[in-house]
TrEMBL record:
Organism from which the protein derives: Streptomyces himastatinicus ATCC 53653
Pfam family, one: MerR_1
Record domain HTH merR-type: where: 9-77
InterPro entries on file: DNA-bd_dom_put_sf (IPR009061), MerR-type_HTH_dom (IPR000551), MerR_fam (IPR047057)
Name of the molecule in the record: Regulatory protein, MerR
Biased composition (Basic and acidic residues): 227-243
Length: 249
């Protein structure tokens, strides 16, 4: 095993010094199960770089105003997350349709994105939806664009829990749209392309902007209809589209 591959290990005093905390604090974190148990060799406890990363994460989250109880909940959600290989795994037989760029974050960097909205409950929902996965001591978000859009929506005053609930609902509707497009393309384009000896990747590149254009056009027109109707209902007006009377005053 090379030096680079060997896991670096520390005794408790060395680990505490590297993490910038006291040995007493380190032992307190261990008792609270904020860090995993060390490897024991007789009476000696050996810690490694994963413990060091966890301690630095705890310190960073404390500096951002999180409580130890809240950090414990975040860590529990973090440890129950799906592996990044499951999140990003693709069938090697087909090119990727998606153009999204995953982004790797430390837990404290993710907390910086959403401040006090970075709760264990929201983290658990994000993991469940498939926005996030765990890779060692880091978190991977499936899409830089989705992450930035989520932060922007939270910045507009929408709670992160509501953004995630909407994301879950959008995922269900988009899956249905994708099934429609996939069936259309497989039945009428991709199968024939293979017969002609055309590379599937080239066909995907040609079809991707067309599918995006259809979805974007339909979404923009649907948003016009929904926003107009919703605003008129909220302001007490009638709408020709729904025929609903104004709400009670």
């Amino acid at each position: 095993m090379s030096e680079a591959d060997r896991v670096r290990e520390y005794r408790v005093t060395e680990l505490a010094e590297r993490a910038g905390i006291t040995v007493r604090t380190l032992r307190f974190y261990r008792e609270r199960k904020l860090i995993p148990p060390p490897r024991r060799e007789g009476r000696i406890a050996w810690y490694n770089d994963h413990h060091l990363a966890r301690l630095r994460t705890i310190t960073a989250l404390l500096e951002r105003g999180h409580t130890l109880g809240g950090i414990a909940e975040l860590i529990a959600a973090f440890e129950s997350g799906r592996d990044v290989g499951e999140l990003l795994g693709l069938d090697g037989g087909l090119p990727s349709w998606s153009e999204e760029t995953p982004i790797r974050l430390t837990p404290q960097a993710l907390a910086d994105y959403f401040d006090d909205e970075a709760t264990a409950e929201n983290l658990t929902v994000s993991l469940d939806i498939g926005y996030l996965a765990v890779d060692g001591d880091d978190i991977v978000h499936i899409s830089q664009r989705l992450l930035d859009a989520s932060r922007a929506l939270v910045g507009q005053g929408i709670p992160l829990s509501a953004v995630l609930a909407a994301g879950r609902e959008v995922r269900e509707h988009v899956d249905a749209i994708a099934e429609t497009f996939a069936t259309l393309l497989i039945n009428h384009v991709l199968a024939d392309a293979r017969k002609r000896g055309e590379e599937v990747g080239e066909t995907v590149e040609r079809l991707r902007p067309l599918a995006k254009s259809v979805v974007d056009a339909e979404l923009s027109m649907a948003m016009d209809r929904r926003l107009r109707t919703g605003l008129e209902e909220r302001t007490g007006g009638r709408t020709e589209d729904t025929g609903h009377p104004p709400p009670d005053q």
